[in-house]
Write a structure and sequence with these properties.
By secondary structure, the protein is of the alpha/beta class. The chain contains 18 helices and 27 strands. The structure holds alpha-D-glucose-1-phosphate-6-vanadate (VG1) and cobalt (II) ion.
């Protein structure tokens, strides 16, 4: 037992996706211990089995040893750890479910850069494999404030490089291959023979794993099992600092992939994944697929893959995600649920069988096969669709827009704004909301404006203040919210959308198509005056 002052850590409040801080903060005395003990106090550890692993970033290996020592001291029966402490987030979710465990601890700051001067993170996932809901993360947070001691063995470290069973005192530690169970799950969902035949016919692909966790998964699945050419996966070795890359798969940070896909010798299909493997960016030869469109195409075509032959039960998207998938849902007679940002809100819908496919505009898509978004899953579903339908990514998108119309969509991120300024801007905007309906801005009439509040249809829990949305007649829409995953300052996310029914006007450059909506956002929210920024840092 180690005593610590109960007021030692007042900043361990989990955000959109767990607790994220600078790595050096996590390395500080008792910091990680405090959070892990608080988690075990809330969920219980005695006699239980947990999954443990992370995306391999700096401090991953140390943190695993610390957590094992705390789990053992708290009476856990067994911990299943990925070899080398490595597990992608979707693979961890699968292992929690496959082994019917009591949950898991995932070490990642996802798309945030890694390294001693960058970011680290941790989150608890429930026995269903999904991120803990707000009721649990709030209880953990309250416990972090009250904790006066934690329990940790000073046992020798576990050799994480060797597969097999060992002990930390009475607790079993099973070091497993991080890839094999996940690869088997993918093989059960998708038609590997058809994809293999497509590669054998000369189909070329580039997968950029951005020196993060998907490397070993992508090499095994794409190159070894599906026969993609050796070297298809680049940046395939997970590195503690991600090789200095920013493993956020968007056109800005995955610029190497974008350059190749827009170049003269572009392969047929390109993809990238983020730090912990739950996101995906998909690119065709000469064409970028916006994540909201990707979700819509996947939902419309999922039945072509064997795992989804029976069709979908429903669809869910986060509120800022475009309405493109709603049109697919409507055509199929399915309900489309609209949730706050963050995968934890999909868990209940998936568990209850209300939805089969879920997605976010931030390059996250997934299904009820696990309870996390899943980057390689989305990439494999695209490959399966291409293998069955033939044709190019560009042709599939064009046909999709011809059928459903096009939701032009973009997200503008303003990063590292002074927190007080960002908060003040959002408060000013919130105060304006009741008077916006009926006003004309940039030639468009505002139909409605509110701050999104979500009532979970399964358990009735309410999550308020999830983002300001301003909807115009005709379906154009502006959403503003502050990021919950950053570790310094505030990031403003501005989401912009406009619908074009077609058949004309389906081919306008996105930022041009959205120009009036972008101007309206500036008029209403006064971003330049409030933040001092004249342009976003990242456009996706
Ligand atoms: C961002 C994305 C959100 C995503 C979250 C976690 O959150 O916008 O859609 O669920 O990251 O993704 P925020 O609060 O910064 O906008 V990741 O790949 O952590 O696991
Ligand atoms: Co991620």
């Amino acid at each position: 037992m180690t005593a610590i002052p109960t007021t030692a850590f007042t900043d361990q409040k989990p955000g959109t996706s767990g607790l994220r801080k600078k790595t050096r903060v996590f390395m500080g005395p008792h910091y990680l211990e405090n959070f892990v003990q608080a988690t075990f106090d809330v969920v219980g550890a005695k006699g239980k089995t947990f999954v443990l692993g992370g995306d391999g970033r700096f401090y991953n290996d140390r943190a695993v040893q610390i957590i094992l020592a705390i789990a053992a001291a708290n009476g856990a029966a067994r911990v299943i750890v990925g070899q080398g402490g490595i597990l992608s987030t979707p693979a961890a979710s699968h292992l929690i479910r496959l082994n019917k465990t009591d949950g898991g601890l995932i070490l990642s700051a996802s798309h945030n850069p890694g390294g001693i001067d960058e970011d680290f993170g941790i989150k608890f996932n429930m026995p269903n494999g999904g991120p803990a809901p707000e009721s649990v993360t709030e209880a953990i947070y309250q416990r972090t404030l009250a904790l006066g001691e934690y329990h940790k063995l000073s046992a020798p470290e576990v050799d994480l490089s060797r597969l097999g069973r060992s002990h930390v005192e009475k607790m079993f530690v099973d070091v497993i291959d991080p890839v094999s169970d996940y690869a088997a799950l993918m093989e059960s969902l998708f038609d590997f023979d058809a994809i293999r035949a497509m590669f054998a016919r000369g189909f070329r692909m580039r997968m950029d794993s951005m020196c993060a966790v998907t490397g070993p998964y992508a090499v095994e699945i794409l190159e070894n099992r599906l026969g993609a050419a050796k070297g298809t996966v680049t940046h395939a070795t997970p590195l503690p600092d991600f090789g200095g890359m920013h493993p956020d798969p968007n056109p800005t940070w995955a610029h190497e992939l974008m350059g190749e896909m827009m170049g003269p010798d572009a392969p047929d299909f390109g993809a990238a994944s983020d730090g912990d493997g739950d996101r995906n960016m998909v690119v065709g030869r000469g064409i970028y697929v916006s994540p909201s469109d990707s979700l819509a195409v996947l939902a419309a075509n999922a039945h072509l893959a064997k795992g989804y032959k029976a069709g979908l039960k429903g669809i869910a998207r986060s509120m800022p995600t475009s309405a493109a998938v709603d049109r697919v849902g409507a055509a199929m007679g399915l309900t489309t649920y609209e949730t706050p940002t963050g995968w934890k809100f999909f868990g209940n819908l998936l568990d209850a069988g209300f939805a089969t496919i879920c997605g976010e505009e931030s390059f996250g898509t997934g299904s009820d096969h696990v309870r996390e978004k899943d980057g390689l899953w989305a990439i494999l579903l695209w490959l399966n669709i291409l293998a069955v339908r033939g044709g190019s990514v560009a042709e599939i998108l064009a046909q999709h827009w011809a059928t459903y119309g096009r939701n032009y969509y973009s997200r503008h991120d303003y990063e590292a704004i002074e927190t007080a300024r960002a908060d003040a801007m959002m408060e000013t905007l919130r105060a304006k909301l009741p008077n916006l309906a009926g006003q004309k801005v940039q030639g468009m009439t505002i139909a409605a404006a509110d701050d999104f509040s979500y009532t979970d249809p399964v358990d009735g829990s309410i999550s308020a203040r999830q983002g300001v949305r301003i909807v115009f007649d005709g379906g154009a829409r502006i959403v503003l919210r502050l990021s919950g995953t950053g570790t310094s300052g505030a990031t403003l996310r501005l989401y912009l959308e406009r619908y074009q029914a077609g058949p004309e006007g389906l081919d306008i450059p996105v930022q041009t198509a959205l120009a009036p909506v972008i101007a309206a956002a500036e008029d209403i929210a006064q971003i330049t005056a409030n933040t001092g920024r004249t342009a976003p840092d990242v456009i996706s």
